[in-house]
Amino acid sequence: MNSISLVTGAVPVALLALGGLSLIWLAGGGQRHLLVVVPAAMLVSAALTFTLFLLAEAVFQWWNASLPRTLYIYAGLGILAVILAVVRFRAVDTVPTRVLALTAAALALLAVAVTVNTAYSQYPTLASLINPPRPVGQKVPERDPATAAGQPTTTEANWTPPANMPSGGSLYSADIPGTVSGYASNPALVYLPPAYLAHPAAVNLPVLVLIHGQPGVPSDWLVGGQLLNMMDTFAAAHNGLAPVVILPDASNANNANWPLCLDSDISASGTYLAVDLPAWVQQHLASGLGGGSQWAVAGYSYGGTCSMQLATNFPDAYPTFIDIAGETEPTIAQGKEALISTYFGGDESRFKAQNALDRLAAQSFPDSAGIVAVGVDDSVYAPQGRQVYQAAKAAGMDVTLQELPGGHSWQVWKAGLENNLDWLCRRLGILE
Where are the alpha helices (DSSP H) in 92-191? Predict the structure, then answer.
């Protein structure tokens, strides 16, 4: 199932074709049906679609400007199919025809779902939809940092994998407390590579912190990003070595006001990610003990913005970063004025003191290095990413701009990490 694509190939094409044929069948019928019922249904569908647009864009602001507006057209066709199915269901009393009407509506709605999934690649394969990766448990196999004291950091050059090393890494769930920050958090996910799980284990591996988007949860990296396969493939090519990967909860335990990876009146999210999280990893996993040289942060969309916030506010903790399709600055749907009011009590200077572009303009970061990755078809975030890249370069960062095929979707977000794992691990010391 893992090889059956839901984004390209025969399956999505077949589902789109079935949806289209279902809509045609529902629209077919006698003269009155074609001349009266179908036009009336189209008008109602258009009105409902426009209402959906207003609610989504103006009232509730469910998603940002990166949403392909063509998806509203497909949504309208799905609504039309449901209306026509209801009409046909009520017009006949034979069970087979009623079943066909419901089936046709379901296929049309499935086709709409396929168009959305194709746009974002949230479920790239059938397996990612039916059987997404799950943690093996909350009991993370811990390592005592004292045992790593005085031992050289494990690299590909000095590591010989033992015969009992597992072929792949494992995923765990872990509660990482906000000891210093007071940050409230849902459980994080932890990926441990094969070398960590071996006996004897690799000592003091580097750490990669991956931040998800908004809306989103840490497990999105596992589904759309196929992180387990990505990291296991990398580890298999490097004697089981890969970074320990931490996927924290960036929502502040589902706070109505996401904390934006800043220290604000909402919560000390920045301190949590740059102080509490590293301290927990060092204490419980004996990894990243060398400090910032062994730590990197990456994220997509909201998480990409977070990666730049952390790289500029905590450069000693995260001198290495990957910003994938992030914004120029943290934003909320209600606008900048509302953000300043909600998060900083109306004091814009407090915001500017932490905002990445302002910090890049005010000081230099000669010891920091990063990747800014954007999608060439992303008309909203690509220009912002280019602006961030120019600001980072001017501030002395060793930064590279990558323009990848695709829009604001997992096609870009996944590649933004996967394509740069070698660079990342050379920077973190696993590879030479």
Answer: 95-120, 126-130, 145-148
| pLDDT tens track for 341-385 | 999 999 999 999 999 999 999 999 999 999 999 999 999 999 999
Distance in angstroms (rounded) separating the CA atoms of residues 143 and 283: 8
CA 405 to chain CA centroid, nearest Å: 17
Question: Counting every residue, how long is the chain?
Answer: 432
Question: Of 237, 231, 246, 316, which Cα lies nearest the Cα of 274?
Answer: 316
95-120 and 10-27 helices cross at what angle (nearest 10)? 140
Beta strand pairing call for 170-174 and 188-192: antiparallel
- The alpha carbons of the chain give a radius of gyration, in whole angstroms, of 25
Closest CA to 135 of 187, 203, 205: 187
Superfamily of domain 133-428: Alpha/Beta hydrolase fold, catalytic domain (3.40.50.1820)
Global pTM value: 0.92
d(CA 337, CA 262): 16
Helix (H/G/I), strand (E/B), else coil: 400 = strand
Residue 58: exposure state from Cβ atoms within 10 A (0-12, 13-18, ≥19)? exposed
The domain segmentation of the chain, as residue ranges, is 10-127, 133-428
